[in-house]
Amino acid sequence: MPTDTPNPADRPRDATDTPPASRGYGPVFAVREFRAVFAAHLLSLLGVVVTELALTVLVYGLTGSPLLSALTFALGLLPYLVGGTLFAGVADRYPARRVLVTCDLICAGCVTVMVLPGTPVGGLLALRCVVAAVSPVFTGTRMAALADILGEGDLFVRGRSLLRIVSQSALLAGFGAGGVLLAVLSPRGAIVVTAVTFLCSAALLRLGTRDRPARSDGDGRGTLLGESLSGARTVLADRRIRGLMLLFWLPPMFVVAPEALAAPYADEIGVGPVALGLMMCAMPVGQIAAELYVGTALTPRLRSLIVLPAAAAGLLPLMAYGFRPGTVATALALVLAGAGAAYVIGLDQWFVEAVPESLRGRAMTLLTAGMMTLQGVGMALAGLAAEFLPVHQVIAGAGAVGAICVLLLVLEVRRTAPAGRGIRTEVRDGADQHMTSG
Q1: What is the pLDDT of residues 220-242, one digit of tens each?
Q2: What's the predicted TM-score (pTM) here?
Q3: Tell me, what CATH number does 407's domain have?
Q4: 3-state secondary structure (DSSP) of residue 422
């Protein structure tokens, strides 16, 4: 178990001290605590993905209802807003390690109850909601803890980038692993395996990370709910932070349209399952490739310079759908749209600089909740629009409307940029006070 005194070799260096040869992900893995967080992230993520797949199969097997089976997936997104808003205060009120371990144990407990033969379908869906409500708290706390482990400079940015790459890769690997497990085990048997992954994640976090104090003790006066809502109001009231948060939220809301409508579009252009699979994989491939390139080849300054141009242009490739392209051209457009997400690497740095340390856990929990919720909203709106318009027009329209919205938001972010990065210093609504970073 690590001691409370950090090893000097594990102390992260500032981005300005990082030589060009060390711009890759190697220095991040040199930090011992990050290795534990990375391994725990991989295990818990695989647990969530395999649980989703196995639970969907289990619910369908018990009910024979496609609606309830689909609802099992939907319940993985809907509770994010509730958990991320009402329980965000947990991320700052309690020590990060305790929160992360507790979240993993709650998930392990929920999936353990799922495997009991007497658990009704309603109970399975309720437990799925609990796991989903815990997820934004876990993710937000882990994001804030990364700033403690890696510092607020370039190592933090690369650490966040690496976790995103793993997330994209693990989604594909997780569904593949889930399929293999379901080929040799029953759905309940596969869920038992996920309980083990959550327990292993909890053990890694407990034994592999330091026990740091809470960022905020809540001064003993407010309730957890009150602190969560107050933190959300404070974060969203700051013009700079609000603009950055929206820049995280809006592009994914529009870019999910081709994913949500992939099957109808494949039917519209008359291609089969192989082409559909190629199109589904194209966007994650573009995102992973862009993250790897920006994270390893570009300096922190260059990453910062591409944030606004990449965000503004990232949705434009979707407009190619207006010409009803074939499989290859569609896949290329999706790879380019995925590569547009490279703006997030530099945006991570801006966000951690803008948010005070005492609010960091709540801000990052809210960030996660909003991102997942708006992606769900984007999928729903795309499906609704496709009831009345041709699929290719809906996707192209999502690209055009999204590009306009993001461009307006980019202009707002430029106006609130601090001195040295943009036109003028960041401001708070109704005040001239500059918000310091944590």
Answers
A1: 456 767 777 777 788 888 899 99
A2: 0.71
A3: 1.20.1250.20
A4: strand
